[in-house]
Each structure stands twice: as C-alpha cells, then as structure tokens.
Amino acid sequence: MDRQIYLDNAATTKMSRTAIEAMLPYFDKTFGNPSSLHTAGQRAAEALSYARSKVASLLGCEPREITFTSGGSEADNQAIISAAAIGERQGKKHIISTAFEHHAVLHTLEKLKKQGFEITLLDVGERGLITPQQVGEAIRGDTCLVTIMYANNEIGTIQPIAEIGAVCREKGVIFHTDAVQAAGHIHINVKQQNIDMLSLSAHKFHGPKGIGALYVKKGIVITSVIEGGAQERGKRAGTENIPAIMGMAAAFEEACKSIDENAAKLTVLRDRLIDGISEIPHCILNGDREKRQPSNVNFCFEGIEGESLLLLLDDKGICASSGSACTSGSLDPSHVLLAIGRPHEVAHGSLRLSLSEENTVDEIDYTIKSVKETVEYLRSISPVWRDLASGKKEFVLK
Ligand SMILES: *Cc1c(COP(=O)(O)O)cnc(C)c1O
To answer: Buried-most residue among 31, 34, 39, 306 (CB within 10 A)?
Structure first.
C-alpha cells in the first residue's frame, strides 16, 4: 500500500511551505554572520532582530526576553540550570516539578539532585492533571523553581498554567513551563499567564528541527550552558542559525494565526478517533478526556505489546508511536503512563496517535479500522491474552 498516514505529530511535524520559503534566502543570498560588522553581516543581524521581535510578539513579551536555542531540550536545560543557579546563590535548593515531564526536564533535575538539590515531583493523578493548590502546598521557603509542562507530549493533557503561575508569583518563586507541545497550538501570553520562563521548539509546529527559543522574564539572570562568543547577549554562544530562526518565526506566526481554526477541525477528528477506538474491548483512554490537546489520542490495550502494534500499523501505512520506548535494550514502559497509575503490563500496550490539521476523516476511519483489526490479530496470537480470555488471569481493564 502506497498510502501514508502520518499520525505522529507530537514527535515531529512536516515543515510548512511558508516556513521553508522563509528560510531559503538565508542559505545563499543573506548568508552573513550576524556578528560581522560589514553589510552582509548586518543584513543577517537585521533578520535575527526581525525574528526575535516576531517570536516575542507572538508570546506577548519583549524581544530582549527571547534567547534562541538549538531546540526544546536545550531551552529546558538552560531554564532549569539558570533558576537553580539563582536558587543556590540564595541558599534555596528545592525544586518542584511533575512525574510526567519530558526527559529534557527530568534528566536535568536528576543531575541537580546529585548536586544537592531536593526535587519534589507532584502526583499527576489518573487524569494527568496538576492543580494550582497542589503547587501552592508544595512550595516551601527554600523553593527556587517550579517547572511544569504546558501540554504533555504523550497523553496531551493541558495544565492550568496561568493559575499555577499566579500561585508561584504570589509566593515569589520562578515558574518555568515546557511549552514545546503547546506553542503554536494553544494561545499563549506569558505576561497574562504569569510565566517567568518558557521553552518552545520549532519542529513541533511545522518549523525546522534543531531550533527553539527560551523566554526569560527580564530581571531573571540566565546562565550560559554553551560557552564561547557573546552571541545572544552572552546567554548562548555559537553563530546563530539564521535560516532556522527565520523558519521558526514564520512557522510560529502561521501556526498562531490558525490556532482556533485548527483546534475546531482537530477536535472533530480526535473525538471520532477516540470514539472509534473505544469500541475495542479492554482498552482505556490515557489522559483526561476534556482537558487534552485537540491533536492527542492515547490508548492502552490489554494483552498486547505496543511495539508490535506499531510495526503492524506501519505495514498498513500508519505512522504512530507507543509510549513504551525500548531504550538501550531494556523494555521500560513509559514514565508518563506509570505516572498516571497504569500498571506495567498495561502501560506496555500503549498507542499514541497525534494528529495535524492535514489529516482527513477518511484517514481517521481507515486508522480506526486498522487499529481494531491489528489489536484483534495480536490478541489472537498472544499467550497473555489467552490467559485473560480463559479467566486464568484477571483483566486489569474492564
Ligand atoms: C519535543 C519535546 C521536547 C524536546 O524538543 P527538541 O526540540 O526536540 O529538543 C521537549 N519537551 C517536550 C514536551 C517535547 O514534546
């Protein structure tokens, strides 16, 4: 089958025509180094300044509050390391986050823990939601940072960011949000939402890979994680990737313009997909049904392995993802699914389908049919399923 249905937009997105075209002149025509004093350099510097203003205005902040990074991971690292450095200077070494953050956040926190920081990971509950009250109760006199993701990359749940930000502001604690899945998909205004630091990444909203941005509220001193030249006002060394920065600005602008229109379209497709897949016996939707991204569908199926499901769907032309990433030989189930309380054996049988506005009803219907057939087939050859079906073992999912 030649058909390819791309349902892995939380992993990365196809670049938009607008973004590609915005990049092209900066490979050969305006290729200067923005740090150079000659005209060619100054043209590149103008582009850089234009892109910074564009990204800033789309987030509701000032251009000087934006630092370009190599992507979401670097922005997360830099935000957390910066807040920790400020905390350390003030003798505050407690950080609050959640158990289902992206590894760019969790692994940075683990590193800080080895350096004597105390980390509190809030319980996200079965629905995958944090409350502002939880955050308020966890904040202590020595808390230097609260870092909570805007929208979860696996189960799509959306946190009450403005309310959490208000709690942090009231208590005088820096609030960072990993908004990589939210930027370009949800309306963001860092001032109105009480956000002190925010990470975003272009390739999650139809921009190029390897470029992102970190917003840091003025007054908060940020630490360089890459040493070298004085680019980005000394906050991030290395010659700026002008084509990617221009592509990101164009993609971000385009995405922000169509947030409402895309959300309306995606919600219809998502709900159709959820309703269709829900007809499969012994499966469960992961993440709150309402407070989730219009693009996210994530299910666990009892008695199957997520990897097998993925490979068979790929044979049918469907690109999907499973939470149970097989990392370096060990089959660890997704930390996100474990955080919402799915038992190991159930977490292994997960499937994430993340949509884009280019998907069609026809593709959704074909996907429902394919998932149903494939789950049924995998169960028919599974010894685990045989034990469940014969009553030898009890179902976890009713
Ligand atoms: C993709 C992603 C990242 C990492 O972004 P990169 O640009 O790929 O480094 C971080 N956080 C979340 C929530 C993501 O989805």
So the answer is: 306
For residue 203 the two structure tokens come to: 């390739």
For the beta carbon of residue 34, count every other beta carbon within 10 angstroms: 20
Query: Tell me: the pLDDT tens digits for 117-133?
Result: 999 999 999 999 999 99
72 Cα: distance to centroid of ligand 1 (angstroms): 5
Q: What percent of the chain has pLDDT over 70?
A: 97
Dist CA 71 CA 51 (whole Å): 15
Pocket test for ligand 1, best of 8, 68, 69, 73 (most atoms within 8 A of CB): 73
Q: Whose CA is nearest to atom 12 of ligand 1?
A: 180
Q: Which atom of ligand 1 is nearest to the CA of 73?
A: 9
**Average pLDDT, integer, range 266-288:** 98
Question: What confidence tens digit (pLDDT) does each residue in 51-92 have?
Answer: 999 999 999 999 999 999 999 999 999 999 999 999 999 999
CB 342, CB 322: distance < 8 Å: no
Rounded Cα distance between 370 and 365, Å, is 9
Distance from C-alpha of 187 to C-alpha of 195, rounded to nearest angstrom = 13
Annotation says 61 is catalytic: no
Report the atom number in ligand 1 closest to the C-alpha of 149: 13
